[in-house]
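ok new one. same drill as before - structure tokens go in, u give me an amino acid for every spot. 83 of them this time. try not to just spam alanines like last time pls lmao
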């Protein structure tokens, strides 16, 4: 995202890691609500870019969730036994 949106230049950073740190300061992610939703917000002087960044973050986050294996519920036994 840093390179895609030209954030190194935007934040006047020479190194990618410094631009990432600057970008992270503009982002808020909260999943602690009782509604079960994850809220993502990005602050930027350009509202259109802020919306685009938040959208890309949410898509990336959703794709990472769907790519990870579902955890096995505790005390669940999925083995089939034949007697």
């Amino acid at each position: 995202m840093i390179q895609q949106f030209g954030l190194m230049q935007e934040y006047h950073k020479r190194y990618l890691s410094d631009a990432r740190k600057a970008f992270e300061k503009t982002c808020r992610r909260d999943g602690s609500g009782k509604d079960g939703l994850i809220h993502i917000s990005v602050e930027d002087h350009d509202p259109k870019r802020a919306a685009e960044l938040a959208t890309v973050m949410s898509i990336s986050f959703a794709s990472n969730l769907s790519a990870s294996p579902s955890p096995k519920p505790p005390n669940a036994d999925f083995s089939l036994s034949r007697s």
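The helical segments are 7-10, 16-26, 47-67. and btw The longest helix spans residues 47-67.
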